[in-house]
Amino acid sequence: MLQTPDAFLPLIDVPTPLPDHPLTFVFHRGRLLLDTLNHALPEFERVKALGLDLAQAQSVGMWQGRYCQTVWTDDEALPDSSLAYHSLRSLFNVVDDGFLGLISRAAQLAEWARTHRYCGVCATPMQRHPGERSFKCGACGMLAYPRISPAMMVLIRKGEKVLLAMHKHSPSQRFSPLAGFLEAGESIEEAVHREVMEEVGLRVHNLRYFMSQSWPFPHSLMIAFTADYLDGEIRLDQNEIAEARWFGADDVWPEASSSVSISSMLVQAHRPPAK
After folding, report:
1. What value does the CA radius of gyration of the chain take, rounded to a whole number of Å?
2. pLDDT digits over 2-46, tens only?
3. What angle do CA 31, 109, 67 make, to 5 degrees?
4. How many angstroms separate the Cα of 254 from the Cα of each of 209, 231, 248, 273?
5. Whole-angstrom distance, CA of residue 73 vs CA of residue 139
6. In terms of CB atoms within 10 Å, which of 1, 55, 69, 173 comes out highest?
7. What is the distance between the alpha carbons of residues 183 and 142, in angstroms, rounded to a whole number?
8. Model-level pTM?
9. Distances 193 to 151, 210, 244 between C-alpha atoms, Å
C-alpha cells in the first residue's frame, strides 16, 4: 500500500548547513526523474549537472540516514537516455512501497512549490515562512499551505453482496467502490450520503470508518468507509458512472484495482468468501 515508509522523519525547514549529497526528487509535470536502469534517484552530482535552481528545493525529511529534498523543473531536457521521467502510476508495483510513499510526499510538496511561486491575492513573489510548511507573501501577508483535497470512498454492502462501479473518468477504468470529493462546508459523512445518492440513487446507513490514504493525484486524501444498503434502486449518474452492480460470492468478479491503492484493500477486506 502507498504509505510513508517506516522510520521516515519529516522536516519542514532546510537544515543549515545543507547535508552533503542529499537525496533529491526532481519532478517535471508530475513525473519523477529516475535512473533508467534501476529506477533509483540519480546521485546528487548528476542532479547538480542538470543546472536546476536547487535554492528552490523544499525539505522532505530524513530517510535511511540521508536528507531528502524535492524540486520541480519546467525544462524536461536531459543529457542522455540514462535518466528519464516516470509517471507515478507507472511506478506502482515497480518500486518498493515505502519508496513510493516517499515519492508521493515529495511529489505533492514539489507541486505545491511550483504552483505557489506568486501570491494569489496580489501576485507578489512568495517566500518560505520558516518554522511551518507554508509560503508567505511579503506584501499582503497571505499564507499558502500545501493543498490537501479530502475525498470519501465507500463500499456498500447488501447482505453478502457489495456494490462496485466503473467511474467514467477513472484512469484505470476498473470497477471500484464509490468515491468523490467533499464540498465546502460538508462533513465526510454528509459527503458519503450525497455522493451515493448522486452517483447511484441509493440510500445507505451504518457508516463505518475503514482507513485513510494520501493519494498524490495530485493532492487527495482518501477516507474510506463501509456502509449498509438502506433502500433504492440503482440509478446511474450518466456524467460520472459507466456501470454499477452488486457482486456476490458466486459472481465473476472484475479485475482488481492496483494493490497500492486503498480501494483494493477496502474491497479485499470485505469481499464475500467463495462458497
Report:
1. 21
2. 888 888 999 999 998 989 999 999 999 999 999 999 999 999 999
3. 95
4. 24, 25, 11, 15
5. 26
6. 69
7. 23
8. 0.92
9. 13, 16, 17
Under 8 Å CB-to-CB from 221, ≥6 apart: which residues? Answer: 148, 149, 150, 151, 212, 213, 214, 215
Q: Residue 22: its pLDDT value, please?
A: 96
Bridge partners for 215 per DSSP: 220
Nine cell digits for residue 45 = 552530482
Grid cell 506568486 is found at 118
CA distance 144 to 173: 34
